[in-house]
Design goal:
Blueprint lengths: L2 H12 L4 H11 L1 H18 L1 H4 L37 H37 L1 H16 L2 H12 L3 H10 L3 H14 L3 H8 L4 H37 L11 H8 L8 H28 L7
Helix pairs in contact: 3-5, 3-13, 5-6, 5-8, 5-9, 5-11, 7-8, 9-11, 10-11, 11-12, 11-13, 12-13
Length: about 300
């Protein structure tokens, strides 16, 4: 290496990185985030293009092809690569369409929880006083409730459907948003830029929208990714117990419930949707954990 090259390298190392360059360095240098984001992206692509990817209609039944094994087992055929279920429906096609149900409910329920939890958390943290006490009491009451049993009861009373499950799971999963945003808002409201906004005549609504929420965005995104996995597992639990998504809609939790009676001699009926659930939830958790590291001020991944 020449003297000029050594000098240029030293100058590049001494040049401070811009915030955007630091963020990109953390983003593409975090293995866990890249793995999780790749899994989520692949599942989202499968959900969007399910009609083009699925080899068969997931609702079509054929009693003559019931319980066919996967192609790698004896008796399996390439026409039904992952076999068929008790009603002769192609299992691969139902798994592919099941991504739509899981992604829709996961994003929908996490979004409902976001709206409720962030609204209550910011109000409690910014205004304090009796508003904070009232919301803290509501949080305590929510944490004391048996979430799954309450969700089962509400779905049973209202009636099972995708939108009912989204609403109920979302309404019951907002506590993490509230706790984090309340604590962060209590810290931010005492900073100088908030005091400057108050001195300039900004209203509480303007301060919350333009000063508080932008500084909570990274924390909210991280919580959203974790809540995505929690909502998906909650939907699968409800469907497995028979009060969530109803047949013939392809839901991974419902597919596990339908296959549990034959799991000892047709184990793929339970294992395959279980693997799909595992990949989706672990992908969301890895992405959330990576975002937490990437957006942290100290840059724990560096």
């Amino acid at each position: 290496m020449s003297t000029t090259d050594i000098t240029l390298t030293a100058v590049e190392e001494a040049t401070p990185l811009t915030p955007g360059q630091i963020f990109r360095k953390r983003l593409f240098g975090h293995t866990g985030f890249l793995i999780g984001a790749s899994i989520i992206l692949a599942i989202v692509v499968v959900a969007i293009f399910a009609p083009l990817i699925a080899p068969h209609d997931p609702y079509v039944q054929s009693l003559s092809t019931r319980m066919l094994p996967p192609v790698w087992s004896e008796g399996g055929t390439w026409e039904h690569i992952l076999g068929t279920d008790q009603n002769g429906r192609d299992y691969l096609s139902r798994l592919i369409y099941g991504t739509r149900v899981s992604i829709t409910i996961g994003i929908g329920a996490a979004s409902v929880g976001l709206v409720i939890g962030v609204t209550l958390g910011v109000m409690a943290g910014y205004f304090g006083g009796w508003i904070d006490h009232a919301i803290s009491f509501l949080l305590t009451a929510q944490l004391a409730l048996p979430g799954l049993l309450l969700a089962m009861a509400l779905v049973f009373i209202i009636g099972p459907s995708i939108w009912v499950v989204i609403g109920i799971v979302g309404v019951l999963h907002w506590t993490y948003y509230l706790v984090v945003t309340r604590a962060a808002t209590q810290r931010i409201r005492n900073l100088d830029f908030v005091a400057a906004a108050k001195a300039s005549g900004a209203s509480s609504r303007q301060i919350i929208w333009h000063e508080i929420l932008p500084n909570l965005a990274s924390a909210i995104i991280v919580i959203f990714t974790f809540e995505l996995g929690i909502a998906i597992l909650a939907e699968s639990s409800l469907s497995f117990l028979g009060v969530g998504i109803q047949p013939p809609t392809p839901s991974w939790g419902l597919m596990i419930a339908e296959g549990k009676q034959a799991m000892f001699y047709r184990p793929w009926l339970v294992i395959l949707p279980g693997i799909c659930l595992f990949l989706l939830v672990i992908g969301a958790n890895l992405m959330g954990d990576g975002l937490r590291d990437i957006t942290s001020p100290e840059g724990r991944n560096e």
